[in-house]
Amino acid sequence: MSSALAIAATSAVLRRLFNEAFNNPSNLNPLSNVTVTALAPDLVQTSQASTPSLQVNLFLHQVTPNAAWRNLGLPVLAADGRTPLRNPPLALDLHYLLTAYGTQNFEAEALLGYALQALHLNPVMTRDDIRTALNALINLNPAPPNDNNALDGSLAKAGLADQVEMLKITPATLGREEVAWLWTALKSDYRPTFPFQVSVVLIQAQYPAQSALPVLQRSISAQPNLVPTGPGLPTLVAASTASGQPPASPTDPVTVTGANLSGMVNVVLNNPRQGTTLTLAATNVSAGSFQFNLSNPLPAANPADVPAGIYQLSAQGTTANLSTTNSLPFVVAPAITNVPLAPITVDAQGNATVNITCAPYLRPGQEASLLIGGQAAPVTPITSATNSLSFSFTALPTSITAVPVRLRVDGVDSLYLDLSKPQPVFAGPTVVVST
């Protein structure tokens, strides 16, 4: 999700889009030296009065809640009305006015035409477009006029490219009364203007939250009896680990069962949330099963491991037979590779910083939190793949006995059950919290 800078980052991305439309030599635009700003119209009018120039201005005139996301939330506070249970996103629609300023006949109309063409050709701002636009702000030298250099460097860390929803641009319609009221309120003279909307910006604060302890045993079974028999298409039925845990740990060999699998050579893991697809080699292939290990995916990652998260697992045949199987849900769980053996010490307010190492590496854009007992804290933001994580807890309750510790990455918890016992028991790491 995005930080509170997401609104400013959206304006910065749009401003770069218009800069490319006007000031990129490859666009063969007959208008040159066009200034693109994101200011209030009264400030632009003052500037135009003293120094008339070709200018396109982007003005955020209204912010409204997104109706669809607004209705998706669950209760965020416990029954006492104070204890936070989760950090719901603040979903917003941004309403902009695009205004053109010219100094000669037809210049304002031409500016507006090129700007609208840029919006029409880019109805959805891709994640790469957003990253490129925001990263470019860090290295602009000299900086464009009216830029806030101190803020530019922070916008690249707003997380706008990593939110679940991409930015979609749609035209809006304002009646004559709305336009007249709006420009009267702005105390500016009306200029050729186009209203449009950007949806949806998701702002999610990362604060410690309360989380329930894990369920030790689930009594759920299903027997679809749909295992294929005889010749036919390659079909996957189930994926299991040597430990018997539903999720796979980073070091777990995985066995996939099915039918007609003799020609399978590759395992494909697709993570829709991260937008990544990894390929692993299939081993011990037979008609009814094959195996693979969660290491050295292709294309080669740095580090070379499979990120924790929820995947769609499928298999591919040989080059001569490019058959692809059906998909199965597949979960890769994170693992805590070290936990402080000494008690965690909190100050008078219950504040404490906890450092751990994990596997696989955490990538930028992944959501991670550490759960100590029933208290959760988000990870300190990272800028590159790392296995050293830091978490800042507030109001962490003390404990006389050791309490469970879990790492949660993209909604997947580290393994915490021992399934070898007649009744499952908690077998994850624990720690004592003291003052």
Give an overview of the whole structure.
The protein has 435 residues and is of the alpha+beta class. It folds into 3 domains: 6-205, no CATH class; 210-214 and 334-434, Immunoglobulin-like (Sandwich); 235-332, Immunoglobulin-like. The model has no long low-confidence stretch (mean pLDDT 84). Helix content is 17%, strand content 33%. Helix 1 (6-23) packs across helix 4 (107-121) and helix 1 (6-23) packs across helix 5 (127-136). The strands form 7 sheets. A 6-stranded mixed beta sheet has the order 1-2-3-6-5-4, sandwiched between helices. Strands 7, 18, 19, 21, 22 and 25 form a 6-stranded antiparallel beta sheet that branches. A 4-stranded antiparallel beta sheet has the order 11-10-13-14, with no helix packed on it.
Which sequence of strands runs across the widest sheet? Answer: 1-2-3-6-5-4
Strand content: 25-35%
Helix content: 10-25%
Coarse structural class: alpha+beta
Radius of gyration over alpha carbons? 27 Å
Sheet having the most strands: 6 strands, mixed
Which descriptor suits the 3D outline? globular
Number of helices: 7
Strand runs, count: 26
Weakly predicted, low-confidence segments: none
Mean pLDDT: 84
What is the number of independent domains? 3
The separation of the N and C termini measures 34 Å
